[in-house]
Design a protein that fits this description.
This is D-allose-binding periplasmic protein. Keywords: Signal. It is found in: Cell envelope. Belongs to the bacterial solute-binding protein 2 family. With 313 residues, the protein is of the alpha/beta class. It is 43% helix and 19% strand. Strand 6, helix 7 (164-180) and strand 7 form a beta-alpha-beta unit. The longest helix is centred in the middle third of the chain and has 17 residues, at 164-180. Residues 1-21 have low confidence and may be disordered.
């Protein structure tokens, strides 16, 4: 795909915006501002914009990941005020597609981060930056098998059904267990990225499935709620618990043994590389269609190493 600004110009769609978009605001719009993960994206974006003196950067997002209409409005507002470019983490692959198309038609380059848009919309954005969520789900599944064994019940605590990152991360976790073990999957259960919801769901699951051998929490608020429920039930260390993302709460749970591991994405890199990509597109430079921002399985054994510390936040 290798979408270049020059390629877009050839379509005529971005031509009118070229001269005025050479400098201006790069709007970073994430799924929610109420999350350490997305605040780490902000840190990366802030670091990147310092290297692009012709541009400014704004950071915004709705109050929760489930407030999809609010995120659509934020993108619409960015388009209406004529931003130079957009870095977007879409909360819903279908709902955000029309506004990304509108940005394209308005001559505004878009870098998608973390979660993809629905199939058929690739022509409307210039690059996609993400953890390979399928590979990350498979890594978590293999660690689950290595620790819990290849039989028994494993509960899956997910977040928002159908979101691009969730489809890859949870879908590949479940498929890998199905292909490589006889583990019985309990769930998935969807927290809507609400920690309190995940805590209550996990509490109920632990009470009704005393024979669980493992549990997987697929994003930051879900994994935190899951971990707290495990601790409150007095079951820390009694089953294999694997989380996702790397804020201070999850780090503490790894150190205490509540979590065997947490899979940590390069959230800082999503913000940093996303802003860099948009700035490069505006400068007429080549940008690849996919940029892998990586994942690290953080455990008690490696949490203090440079490779882990580089992605934790």
């Amino acid at each position: 795909m290798n979408k270049l600004l020059t390629t877009a110009l050839a379509t005529g769609v971005l031509a009118a915006a070229t001269s005025i978009a050479s400098a201006g605001e790069i709007a970073v719009i994430v799924k929610t501002t109420n999350s350490s993960f997305w605040q780490n994206v902000n840190k990366g974006a802030t670091a990147a914009i310092a290297n692009h003196g012709d541009h400014t950067m704004t950071f915004n997002g709705p109050a929760s990941e489930s407030a999809i209409a609010d995120q659509v409005s934020l993108v619409e507002n960015a388009i209406n005020r004529g931003v130079a470019g957009i870095v977007l983490a879409p909360s819903d692959p279908e709902a955000l597609a029309p506004v990304v198309k509108r940005a394209f038609e308005s001559g505004i380059p878009v870098a998608i981060i973390d979660s993809g848009l629905a199939e058929g919309n690739q022509e409307y954005y210039q690059t996609f930056l993400s953890t390979d969520n399928c590979a990350a789900g498979e890594q978590a599944a293999q660690m689950m098998i290595d620790s819990a064994g290849s039989t028994g019940k494993v509960a899956v605590m997910s977040y928002v059904a159908g979101v691009g990152s969730e489809v890859g991360r949870v879908g590949c976790f479940v498929k890998y267990l199905g292909d490589n073990s006889t583990i019985e999957i309990v769930g998935p259960f969807y927290s809507q990225s609400q920690m309190a919801t995940a805590l209550n769901q996990t509490t109920d699951i632990l009470a009704s499935n005393s024979d669980l051998v493992g549990i997987f929490g697929a994003n930051e608020p879900t994994a935190i709620g899951m971990g707290r429920a495990i601790e409150q039930a007095g079951k820390a260390g009694q089953l294999t618990a694997i989380g996702f993302d790397g804020n201070a709460d999850l780090q503490d749970m790894v150190k205490s043994g509540t979590l065997l591991s947490t899979a940590v994405q390069g959230s800082f890199q999503m913000g940093e590389y996303g802003v860099d990509a948009v700035a490069n597109i505006l400068a007429g430079d080549e940008v690849t269609d996919f940029i892998d921002t990586g994942v690290v399985m953080v455990t008690k054994e490696n949490i203090d190493t440079p490779v882990a510390q580089h992605v934790l936040y």
